[in-house]
Design a protein that fits this description.
- This protein is an alpha/beta fold.
- The chain has a five-stranded parallel β-sheet, with helices on both faces.
- Helix 3 packs parallel to helix 5 and helix 4 crosses helix 7.
- It is globular.
- The protein starts with 12 loop residues before the first strand and ends in an 11-residue tail after the last helix.
Length: 251
C-alpha cells in the first residue's frame, strides 16, 4: 500500500527494546535488525544515549567519569540527548518510511531514574514529554529476567570483555569506557535492580497495546522467533490498516 506522506511503497515502524542488566536486549536488537535487512526492509538501529553527536558524547562521559552525576542531572542529560535523537534521527527516518529499532528509549529513564533512583515520576514525565514531543514506539519489547540471573550474565559478559580488552588496556594505559558504568550499577545493589524491574513491569501493564513482555531466560533463538512473530504481525497490520495512508507510526 502506498503511503502518500512517504511517497513510496514502504512502511515506517518504530520499535524499542527495554530491559534490565543482562536481559540480552542488545543482542536481540541485532538479530531483528539483521533479519529485517535480509528481508529487504530499510532499517535504522539506534541506541540511548547515543546515535547523535550529543548522545555519543554523553554516553562516553557517563561511562568514563569517576564522579557520577546526580540522578536528577541524569534525567535532564538523557532528555537533552533524546531530544536531539528524536528530531535529528527518529522522525526523519520514519518520514522516509524506514523501520527504526531503538536499544532503549524514554521508558529507560522512567525505569532507572524514576523507579530505580526514585526521582519524581511526574518530573520525569515532563522531561520525557518535552524530549519525545509525544513520539513513542509502536512496539516495545520488554525482555524480563530475574535480577540474579541478569546480574550474573552481566558479570560474565564483563569478564569476557575484560579478557579481550586486557592487552590493549595494559599497552596504552586506557580504561575501557564500560567499566565505570558497570561499577556504578553493581554498586546500586539488588534492591535498586529490583525496583527497576518492577518499574518496567508496571509500565508494560499500563500500555498492553504497545508493550510485549517476554521471558528473557528463554533460549536466544526462541526469543528472536517470538520477537519476529510480533514484528511481522505489526507490519501486516500497518499494511492492512485503513489509516495507513493518513499517518506515520509513532505519531
Amino acid at each position: 500500500m502506498k503511503n502518500s506522506l512517504i511517497g513510496e511503497d514502504t512502511l515506517g515502524l518504530f520499535i524499542s527494546f527495554e530491559g534490565g542488566e543482562g536481559s540480552g536486549k542488545s543482542s536481540q536488537c541485532t538479530v531483528l535488525y539483521d533479519r529485517l535487512i535480509e528481508k529487504g526492509y530499510r532499517v535504522t538501529r539506534i541506541q540511548e544515549p547515543g546515535s547523535t553527536e550529543l548522545g555519543n558524547y554523553l554516553r562516553s562521559y557517563l561511562k568514563a567519569t569517576k564522579n557520577p552525576v546526580t540522578p536528577e542531572a541524569e534525567v535532564l542529560l538523557f532528555a537533552a540527548a533524546r531530544t536531539e535523537l528524536v528530531r535529528r534521527v527518529i522522525l526523519p527516518e520514519l518520514v522516509q518510511g524506514r523501520i527504526v529499532i531503538a536499544d532503549r528509549y524514554a521508558d529507560s529513564t522512567t525505569a532507572y531514574q524514576g523507579y530505580g533512583r526514585r526521582v519524581s515520576l511526574s518530573s520525569i514525565k515532563h522531561a520525557n514529554d518535552l524530549a519525545t514531543n509525544g513520539h513513542w514506539p509502536d512496539l516495545t519489547f520488554l525482555l524480563d529476567v530475574p535480577i540474579e540471573i541478569g546480574l550474573n550474565r552481566a558479570r560474565v559478559q564483563t569478564s569476557l570483555d575484560d579478557e579481550r580488552d586486557f592487552a590493549r588496556r595494559n599497552t596504552d594505559g586506557s580504561k575501557r569506557a564500560d567499566e565505570s558504568e558497570e561499577q556504578r550499577f553493581e554498586g546500586a545493589g539488588k534492591t535498586f535492580h529490583k525496583r527497576v524491574r518492577e518499574g518496567y513491569l508496571k509500565l508494560a501493564a499500563r500500555e498492553p497495546d504497545r508493550w510485549i513482555v517476554l521471558d528473557a531466560t528463554a533460549k536466544e533463538s526462541v526469543l528472536s522467533q517470538q520477537i519476529w512473530d510480533y514484528v511481522s504481525q505489526k507490519l501486516n497490520e500497518k499494511l492492512l490498516s485503513e489509516g495507513d495512508t493518513a499517518r506515520l507510526p509513532g505519531f
